[in-house]
Amino acid sequence: MWVVSGLSGAGKATALAALARSGVETVDNLPAPLLGAFVALRRERVAAVVVDARRAEGVRELDAVDGASVLFLDARDDVLLRRLSESTQPHPVGDVGSLPAAVAAERDLLGGLRSIADVVIDTSDLTPEELGRRVVETIEPPSSPDGRAALICTVSSFGFKYGPPVEADWVVDSRFLRNPFWVPELRPLTGLDPAVHDFVWDQPDAREFVDRLSAVLTWTLERAADAGRTRLHLAVGCTGGRHRSVVLASEIAARLGEEGVATTLRHRDVHRPDPR
Could you tell me the CATH superfamily of domain 2-139? Predict the structure, then answer.
């Protein structure tokens, strides 16, 4: 059982449509006081219910959901404001005044739900297709041969100048390595290009970083699987998310794949234009 919540404009309708297409039982806009009874219903497969600011009664005090996991959809304020300005639907707390004030009020209202969320997805830079796929993978992950939900490790790269991914469980910093950005012929390239890969990977500290991190991550994943967890997200950061972090995230994902770990690799900022 999953409770799906999040801010207006963060993509709840898109998520719910993707879940319905995948065959997940879905209920939209359930009042928070009815949540306990709905979770307690017997069902044969996974279900998802949306609880958000449209029915504010009881939401602010919702600091635990027994028997269910919580998925929270978030986005940067500038993205929310742009999406909401294009919407014809009234904001659920729009009576507070301006649109920025409504976004702030909704963040406060849903703060308890976000604080207990098992998974937070930042939808700021996701297409509707990517968001739908991410939500379905979260709520109905593939099963392992023994029938348990398989543990999936996500390894991502990002740029600290744009902020760490809000959904990451671990955040590690690769900015101690020499930066290809300061090599003129490498600056316009990315960590997906062989020349940048070789520049980073030829540094002994880069290889030791991957060796040490992969070892502790594999150890952690084994114990997380025994504890019933189904996902873990490691985010590797560098300054702009285009060079060092891309190489290291790719190498870590490849190492985990060789060890039989179901791994998803993402590069959040690799295609951002070079501001210089």
Answer: P-loop containing nucleotide triphosphate hydrolases (3.40.50.300)
